[in-house]
Amino acid sequence: MQINRSILLRGSYANIGDYVALTKPRVMSLVVFTALVGLMVAPGGIDPFAGVVALLCIAAGAGAAGALNMWYDADIDAVMARTAMRPIPSGRVSRSEALAFGLVLGVCAILALGMLLNVAAAALLAFTIFFYVVVYTMWLKRRTPQNIVIGGAAGALPPVIGWVAVAGNVGLEPLILFLIIFLWTPPHFWALSLNLAGEYARAGVPMLPVVAGRAETKRQILLYSVLLVPISLLPWALGFAGAIYGSAAAMLGAIMIFLSWQVRRSNDRERRPARRLFVFSMLYLVLLFGVLLMNAAPYAQSR
């Protein structure tokens, strides 16, 4: 793998925006939103100040994980067009500065959550950061095409952290939310990687389209999309979300399967079906959790 080492090692010319970019703000916003849902549907409720503290700590933890991911993956980012202009490969932030920033941000987030709310939520936040940075970024990403499947557990934990911040323990409901995001992650990310297989191959990352081929990736996308639908219906089936949520989950799931089927039937030169699925998958999760937040709140308050 050929990279410009001088770019990765030279001093930085960073501004505040570059450090914000290190935190992967788009990913962070989704993390905070799913954590908010877990926090709001948890029994007992939480006062607004504690809720804001919890979300800020979770956001900081997610940002720390993003910064440490960029620190370790700077060599990969430098050779992929999609990531070449990130702060480290573009030379605006040095790797050592990104490492220090990520570590300080992560430690502060964990300590603040533990001292201001509860130790269980802080421990789960620490585990999530560790899993994303060490298990996924340092180990799985460069070694197995199942990287995004196993590593997706880190992205599925924020609603559980939000729940634990309120309740102090884990219940069935946040585990179902975990499963929804866990099953959503592979079709979401593989839809993106189908159109970036050449870049991943050039960077030496064994994403599923690179290792198993496009046909198998499309089959796996459809499989995970089908599995996602019954799991997404569990909050309604088990009674902690209402009929509005159940209807929305069924409708969104049907669209997800339809778009995945279009990807499955598309030829290798078509890029639009995978792009449509990728874009819709982001909308899918926001809408599904948004409806759950509105439809499950009365149930949480009554427990």
UniProtKB/TrEMBL annotation:
One of its GO terms (biological process) is heme O biosynthetic process. Keywords: Cell membrane, Heme biosynthesis, Membrane, Transferase, Transmembrane, Transmembrane helix. One of its GO terms (molecular function) is protoheme IX farnesyltransferase activity. It is a multi-pass membrane protein. One of its GO terms (cellular component) is plasma membrane. Pathway: Porphyrin-containing compound metabolism; heme O biosynthesis; heme O from protoheme: step 1/1. CDD domains: PT_UbiA_Cox10. It is found in: Cell membrane. The chain crosses the membrane at residues 27-46, 52-72, 93-113, 119-140, 147-170, 176-200, 221-238, 244-264, 276-297. Its EC number is 2.5.1.141. InterPro entries: Protohaem_IX_farnesylTrfase, UbiA_prenyltransferase, UbiA_prenylTrfase_CS, UbiA_sf. It catalyses: heme b + (2E,6E)-farnesyl diphosphate + H2O = Fe(II)-heme o + diphosphate. It is an enzyme of class 2 (transferase). It holds the Pfam family UbiA. It comes from the Bacteria. Its main location: membrane. Carbon 2 of the heme B porphyrin ring is defined according to the Fischer nomenclature. PANTHER family: 4-HYDROXYBENZOATE SOLANESYLTRANSFERASE (PTHR43448:SF7), PROTOHEME IX FARNESYLTRANSFERASE, MITOCHONDRIAL (PTHR43448). Belongs to the UbiA prenyltransferase family. Protoheme IX farnesyltransferase subfamily. Converts heme B (protoheme IX) to heme O by substitution of the vinyl group on carbon 2 of heme B porphyrin ring with a hydroxyethyl farnesyl side group. This is Protoheme IX farnesyltransferase. It comes from Bradyrhizobium canariense.
